[in-house]
Amino acid sequence: RDFIKRVYDHLKESNQLDKIDDAALNMLAVNYSLFLDANKAISEKGLTSKGSRGNDIPNPAIKIANDAEVQCIKLMEKFGLTPRDRQKMKMLDSDELSPLETFVKESKELR
What we know:
The protein is mainly alpha-helical. About 70% of the residues lie in helices and about 5% in strands. It contains five helices and two strands; from the N terminus they run ααββααα. It has helices at about 1-15, 20-45, 60-80, 85-95, 100-110; strands at about 50, 55-60. It has a two-stranded antiparallel ribbon. α2 packs antiparallel against α3. The protein is elongated, with a radius of gyration of 21 Å.
């Protein structure tokens, strides 16, 4: 809950949150919770469990954790919550030209 509260506060402060974003934020919260619960189960029960034939099989919580992590990352990217996406957003908000844009602009001016 603390993580999602920090995410909500960050998005609200940076004016990146609309009322319509509630569903996506809820999905992020659910998947983050699944991720944490699955990792706790892995910590408590180990990486493997016994299959129906008595053989070792991967703990099913591993797939749950992996799937939830993938969904969290996708949603975090949509909200600009990864370092790479924050950098992209800064570049989009900036009036400064990127090195490539500067090069192209100067090349056009020389023609």
